[in-house]
Amino acid sequence: MPQKQTASPFKRVRLGLMVLALASLCSLGAVTHADQFDDQINALKAQNNSTQGLLNGLESQAGSYQDTINGLQSQIDALQSQIAANQAQQAALQQQITDAQNKIDQQKKLMGEVIKAMYVDGQMSTIEELATSKNLSDYVDQEENRTAVQNKIDDLIRQIAALQAQLQKQKAELDELVANEQQQNAQLASTESQQQGLLNLNEAQQSDFNNQISANSGKIAELRREQIAANARFSGGSSPGSGPTCGGGYPAKWCEVPQDSVIDSWGMYNRECVSYTAFRVAESGRYMPYWGGVGNANQWPGDAQSAGIPVDSNPRAGDVAISTRGAFGHAMYVESVNGNSTINISQYNVNLDGRYSTNTISPAGLYFLHF
Questions:
Q1: What residues does 332 pair with on adjacent strands?
Q2: How far is Cα 110 from Cα 159, in angstroms, rounded to an integer?
Q3: Strand 320-323 vs strand 367-369: parallel, antiparallel, or unpaired?
Q4: Other C-beta atoms within 10 Å of 5: how many?
Q5: Quick one: which of 189, 2, 10 has its CA closest to 83?
Q6: How crowded is residue 235: how many other Cβ atoms within 10 Å of its Cβ?
Q7: pLDDT in tens, 207-256
């Protein structure tokens, strides 16, 4: 077993695929029950079921990724809206700072003009002003007036400068806030991108799984078509209605349950051609070897010869007739031989539906096992 460690969902999925592939190879390479055709179909179905389980897990993970992406996108949208509002506030503060600077410049200009009017344009010295004044009181009043005007302008300039400094501090704080928000937004966007990458990889793996399931389903359908085509000459006779109607004395414990759901007394799946013929041989009191795991119906002639059971092309009542056509062949029970050299047979699963049927056919091309 691997050491315990925290693994990503995709590592777990890849591990599941490796286990699944190994299990599939083992199941296809192992000795199977006597109807290997259905063994192969069941192996493909089992692989599809396992793959579907992994696919369901990926779909659940994809939903989780999508929920995370949606949550991140909501955070990004909210943060982006907040950034936009703060940037608008930045612009407003910058405009106020600019307006304040303009006012400072205007007041400085005004102060300059006042001072110029008082001291420069008049070109009058202090002695001259004092001499031209009617009295000392007039001179003092003029001087105080100039000083008051100058002080008022100075105060206004200081107030505007203080406001400008406050606005610049607020803008600096806001600049830092916006920078932090933009950094947070970038981190959220990076996380969202990572989640989207995981989702894309997840969806790609889902596509691979779906393709694998589709390919296996295609193989199953092709195997069924192949064997049905090979059995076509045996399927034109009597057949009961739909459903698990039994016939030929085949026991209810094997017939009235789903096909391939149980193993019979000879190691073969229920409601299969080989299971039915094995039952008929044993029911007649003859020895039926335990042939579970020795191969398909088309391998029965060789298996019988190995067991000392005669095999030839001459049919007799009670024989098992074997067709070797198709990938897996077909087994039938010979009920009787007619005068015109045709034979009456009974069988199961000729159309791969697990049902009982009878027919009258030519023995040409068949092997007959004399148990």
A1: 321
A2: 16
A3: antiparallel
A4: 6
A5: 189
A6: 17
A7: 887 888 878 777 777 777 777 777 888 887 655 433 447 899 999 999 99
